[in-house]
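User: Please go through the entry that follows and flag anything odd:
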Amino acid sequence: MNKRVAYVVHSLNLGGTERLAADMALALHKEYDIRIICLDEPGIWADPIRRAGIPVLSLYRQPGLDLRLPVMLARYAARNLIHFFHAHQCTPWFYTGLSRLLYPRPKLLFEEHGRLYPEVLNKKRRAFNRMVLQRLTHTVTAVSHDVKNRLFLYEGLDPDKTHVVYNGTRPLPAMAPDERRALRARFGFTQKDVVAGFIGRLDPIKNLCVVLDGFQTALAGCPDLKLLIIGDGPLFNEIKEKIIHMSLSDHVVLAGYQKDAAALAPVLDVFVLASLSEGTSMALLEAMSAGVPAIVSNAGGNPEIVVNNQTGWVVPTGDGSALSRALTEAALDKRKSQAMGNQANKRFLENFTFDRMIHTYKTLYQQL
């Protein structure tokens, strides 16, 4: 009988963590009897997951500290003979860890995908995690060395017992020139346009206002420069208004949510990620897999993924002027950008594929 594994997540809504958990479940459910428990609502990925034969349960967490959840998780584990939990992010880890005080049979793997910004040290929480939750946890993984370090600084977790497992994604299929031209035309871009772009959630942590500021400055010397922003989120209307206020409507396309967003990286000539904090960006990996160089902030795991002046540009976090200079270089030195894109693709294939990540987790699962 295959081991029964319960993934515990916030939800299966839009987001890199949610998508990665869903993709992992789909990839592994023939070797493991996987089910997914959402602390909150199920989200848009729930129905496709269920159609694949993976059960999805939602606990509809109450505001504040919901002490029903450890009881519900413990009962579920006992009734379904769960072998181990895979908790994605800190809150699922907290409740799943507490459930083991009630029913200790299932083992626990905690995976941290990213950190909040700004982070505030809570000494009581750090002590509790170090003395209680860490002892209830068998394996800890972090998606970057930066996240691993922060787990020690802010959560008290032993760095010697934390594995770094970078996110992975499947390589995007090669795109014929005619197909790429048609895809660019879908967003109103011509062959001569140099398209910079962001793909992801429109959230304050992504620092898109700095992207717009840097883009506006670069545009003065690069009239063929365009900016494509793909995604939705709480800042959508604010960004829309800022584009109008900055008189950038003829140069910036705010495309909103796109169902095929993961496949749109080849539209870009350069990917831009100015995050204030980041684990390992799935959109960044997809851009690299498509041979697109990236301009990234020196935040979180970004500088672990992008090699400055080899696979892209790493600029100081929040520095619109530095971002503008990188955009200008990407637009004017196309030969260098192409060479960086080729190196980005090579680095992706060597380090950040989905198969590589899954192989690592299979090894960790076998040890539980």
Summary: Residues 132 and 146 are 23 Å apart (CA to CA). The radius of gyration is 21 Å. The longest helix spans residues 334-351.
